[in-house]
Amino acid sequence: MDTNKNAYWQANLRLMLGLLSIWFIVSFGFGILLFDYLNQFKFYGWKLGFWFSQQGAIYFFVLLIFIYVWQMNRLDRRFGVEEE
After folding, report:
1. 3-state secondary structure of 40
2. H-run or E-run covering 46
3. What is the distance between the alpha carbons of residues 11 and 8, in angstroms, rounded to a whole number?
4. Whole-angstrom Cα distance, residue 19 to residue 27?
5. pLDDT in tens, 52-74
6. Are 28 and 20 in contact (CB under 8 A)?
7. Which of 23, 24, 27 is nearest to 67 (CA)?
8. Do residues 42 and 48 lie in contact, with contact meaning Cβ atoms separated by under 8 Å?
9. How far apart are CA 26 and CA 2, in angstroms?
10. pLDDT, tens digit, for every residue of 8-28?
C-alpha cells in the first residue's frame, strides 16, 4: 500500500510541476520576457504581447485548472482513490 501511495504522490507532483511550468512560461515568458517580440503580431485587433499580459495568462490559468481537475480524476481512478 505504501508503494501505491508513493506512486500516486509522484504522479500528482509530475502533473502539478508540468502545469505550473506551462503557467510560468505563459505568464512570465509570454507576458513579460517576450512582450515586445509578441507585440508585432495581432490577435483580434490587439497586440499579442499586450493580450498575453492582460488577458491571455488569465485564460490559460483557468484552462490549466480544468486540465488539472480532469487529469486528477483520471489519476484517482487509476489508483483507486476516486470520490463517489
Report:
1. coil
2. strand 46-47
3. 5
4. 12
5. 888 888 999 999 999 999 999 99
6. no
7. 23
8. yes
9. 36
10. 999 999 999 999 999 999 888
